[in-house]
Amino acid sequence: MLQERVLGNILVRHGVVAAETLEGLYDQQQEKRAHLADLIVQNKVASEADVARALAAECCLPFVESIDAEAVPIEVGTRLPIGFCRSNKLIVIGESEDEVYAVCADPLVTDGIDDVRAAFGKPVNLRVGAGEIVVEAINRVYERKETASDLRSDEELGDEDERDILDSDDDAPIIRWVNSLFAQAVKERASDIHIEPEEKEVVVRYRIDGELYISRRASRQFMPSVVARVKIMAGLNIAEKRLPQDGRISLKIAGRAIDVRVSTIPTSRDQERIVMRLLHKTNVLMDLTELGFASRDYHLMSHLVTRPNGIVLVTGPTGSGKTTTLYACLNKINRPNVNILTAEDPVEYEIGGIHQVPVQAKIGLTFASALRAFLRQDPDVIMVGETRDRETADIAMRASMTGHLVLSTLHTNDASSAFTRLVDMGIEPFLVRTTVIGVLAQRLVRVLCPHCKQPYEASLQELEELGCGPDRTRWRINRQLGHAYRVHGVPYQPVGWTEGALPIFHRAGGCEKCEGKGFIGRKGIYELLMADDVVGQLVLKNADGQSIKRAAQQQGMDTLRDDGAHKVFEGTTTVAEVLAATQEDVIEE
Fold first, then answer.
1. Mind listing the pLDDT tens digit for each residue in 401-414?
2. Preceding omega of 81 cis (within 30 degrees of 0)
3. What's 338-383 look like in SS3?
4. What is the pLDDT of residue 161?
5. What does the pLDDT look like over 192-234, one tens digit per residue?
6. Among 363, 508, 408, residue whose Cα is nearest residue 449
7. Cβ distance 557 to 527 under 8 Å?
8. What is the DSSP string of 309-323?
9. How far is CA 480 from the centre of its chain?
10. What is the DSSP string of 33-76?
11. In this structure, are residues 60 and 10 in contact, taking their beta carbons and an 8 Å threshold?
12. Could you report the per-residue pLDDT of 513-537, keeping only the tens digit for each?
């Protein structure tokens, strides 16, 4: 506690934290047994860089903004155990004849610095950096150590090398190579890893921000060993090569818990193809405010998820962020006086206060059976990972009619198609009309890199393609919003252009920050359909999806393309991204 007080006094003296704020953090520190610096960052009082800069000034040490991990000699940077480096947030970046150079996040913790001095037998020339920068450098340096032993192609292998790898019982090179795939994928924020057999080589591709990129290649002769290693990790049958198999791997990479869903299929090239989806279980849960909703749609969605009963559906293709949205909804209503139960396949995030059930079809624990059991658990809110069949949909309907709020996902192209999809499953239209209170469709578009995006004057053709030409913009301005689409105190802001100077849009550039891609991360575009009386009457008449969509637009619904246009006008994404993610909208002229 004394050391925490010393740190607190330093931060107050350097203006990083206010004294009155610090007292509350001391109470939290005693209660949670956490480090004061971690609490300061978690509560967004200051950044890790602010804390490190103050400590560097106090100790008269140089502060470093970044660490070039590629310039750190592997034999020097990895001489200490990785666990020691991470726990002390300390990395050795160089060595000379007289001293060793290191960067740490907290120079007040002298035990780790003393251990470095003892290990190298030299004085330590110390610098201070933000904790996140130090940890990232540690991970990258040790990752370089792993990838330094990557499998080499046929041309690079001599006779002795080939015998050692292929004929030896030592599988360490294969293990290191597969492990490095996961480490590299986490570093590059990949959502999927594809291991694909080609005629003469193995190609590894990562899906980053929705796009596939070739990451590395290896000789085809290693493919059986790589497949066997992945199958062993996933608990699959390594002898079965004729049938598709599915499995899971649980890993811990750079301190983060990762769940990996593994799928293998046989191919015509006499080798199996592997796709692995990475789920970051320790990801910070997002709030509804962080998902990118327009102001009005945020308030409408908040109203839906705080209703006492009814069904709220989130639709979109695989990988469109539906689960993230559902978790954000649960996060908003997660309170001690609300009993929330979820059935998921798999459980992607662990949430305190919510009881989550992983679906296991092999033993009969399906979405339907879990949902049926939930009704005997006195729930207030139920989340079903996916409504796949009539049985699940029917139980969800009955749950909503008996006073429960049900959240679920559905695979449809847009919000209006959710109603016809439920009817196609065999649910009576009157039940759909009675229970469904709102449908949210969504897609993900790539976000422009803020460091290199390039402004330009939009063209009339681009405005028309976005549905933001003068005629359509006037139609939005003049339409009368239905009651379900009005939010008190939040004026509706129609997107578009009518006259005057053409708006400024942005296109992708390319820089070091985004690794030349021009984009960093993705953000959702949304289409929120409120199940009001107008839509309800059409559902009862078993109307088609386009008719329902047209009526909803007349009442005030913004389509996926409308919301995407908002993001383009804001400079968040490009016209091409929105056009690729949406389909042509239908409106009543």
1. 999 999 999 988 89
2. no
3. CCEEEEECCCCCCCCCCEEEECEHHHCECHHHHHHHHCCCCCCEEE
4. 40
5. 999 999 888 899 999 988 889 998 888 888 888 899 999 998 9
6. 508
7. yes
8. SEEEEEE-STTSSHH
9. 37
10. T--HHHHHHHTTSS-HHHHHHHHHHHTT--EES---GGGS-HHH
11. no
12. 888 889 998 999 999 999 999 999 9
Residue listed under structure tokens 């989550």:
356
Residue 208 burial (CB < 10 Å; 0-12/13-18/19+)?
buried
Contact between residue 327 and residue 349 where contact means Cβ atoms under 8 Å apart: yes
Give the pLDDT band (50/70/90) at residue 100.
very high
pLDDT in tens, 42-74: 777 888 888 899 999 989 999 998 888 888 888
- Model pLDDT, residue 148: 54
User: How many alpha carbons fall within 13 Å on the CB side of residue 45?
Assistant: 23
Which token pair is 194? 């594809």
- What is the rounded distance in angstroms from the CA atom of residue 530 to the CA atom of residue 548? 11
Q: 């396949």: which residue's tokens?
A: 345
* N-to-C CA span, the chain: 69
Q: 58 vs 32, 52, 108, 128, 296, CA distance in Å? A: 27, 10, 10, 11, 47
Q: Is the model's pLDDT at 340 over the cut of 50?
A: yes
Strand order from edge to edge, sheet including 100-104: 63-64, 124-129, 100-104, 90-95
CA distance 557 to 234: 45
Three-state secondary-structure class, residue 581: helix
Structure letter (DSSP) for residue 523: E
* pLDDT single digits (tens) 144-196: 776 554 444 434 434 434 333 223 334 467 888 888 888 888 888 898 999 99
Contacts 24+ apart (CB under 8 A), 43-50: 45/17, 45/21, 46/11, 46/16, 46/17, 47/130, 48/105, 48/130, 48/131, 48/132, 48/133, 49/130, 49/133, 50/16
**DSSP structural state of residue 25:** H
Q: Are 242 and 266 in contact (CB under 8 A)?
A: yes
Q: What is the mean pLDDT of residues 316-340?
A: 90
Amino acid in position 161? D
Q: What are the tokens at 143?
A: 């990752």
Kindly state the tokens that stand for 404: 């429960």
Ramachandran category for residue 19: left, alpha or beta (phi over 0 → left; psi -120 to 50 → alpha): alpha
Count other C-beta atoms under 10 Å from residue 424's C-beta: 10
How many helical (H) and strand (E) elements, i.e. helices and strands, does the chain have? 23, 19
Token pair of 569, please?
């006008």
445: tokens are 């578009």
Task: Please report the sign of the dihedral spanned by the C-alpha atoms of residue 217, residue 218, residue 219, residue 223.
Answer: negative
Residue 98 vs residues 95, 101, 176, 323: alpha-carbon distances, Å: 8, 10, 34, 55
The residues, ordered by sequence, that sit 6+ positions from 167 with a Cβ below 8 Å of its Cβ are: none
Report CA 441 to chain centroid distance, whole Å.
18
Nearest to 94 by CA among 141, 59, 58, 156: 141
- pLDDT of 33 higher than 80: no
